[in-house]
Q: What sequence folds into this?
């Protein structure tokens, strides 16, 4: 299975680090609350918001993927705990690369 966060081609390191950090925040929130992995992405405010409870899961500069005029709903695919662990490690590396 080709996991969605493994292909950083075409993204500057800082943008990539924000994208995968946002993805991880969605999975961490799902683990903590059991809320479905459904978020609203607010392009103007640059944030991911849980579609169930409204908690802001991630905000950061320039992390949204593409341009669209209004909040857009995304559903994230289910991952195993092992895959979420891989994602955590990938985010740590991406942050280190972005801050190098
Ligand atoms: Zn929630």
A:
């Amino acid at each position: 299975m080709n996991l969605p966060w493994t292909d950083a081609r075409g993204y500057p390191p800082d943008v990539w680090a924000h994208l995968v950090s946002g993805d991880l925040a969605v999975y961490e929130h799902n683990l903590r609350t059991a809320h479905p992995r459904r978020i609203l992405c607010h392009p103007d405010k640059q944030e991911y918001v849980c579609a169930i409870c409204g908690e802001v899961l991630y905000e950061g500069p320039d992390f949204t993927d593409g341009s669209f005029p209004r909040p857009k709903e995304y559903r994230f695919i289910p991952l195993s705990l092992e895959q979420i662990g891989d994602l955590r490690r990938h985010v740590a590396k991406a942050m280190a690369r972005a801050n190098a």
User: Anything to note?
Assistant: The mean pLDDT is 86. Residues 29, 33, 35, 50, 52-53, 55 surround zinc ion (CB under 6 Å).
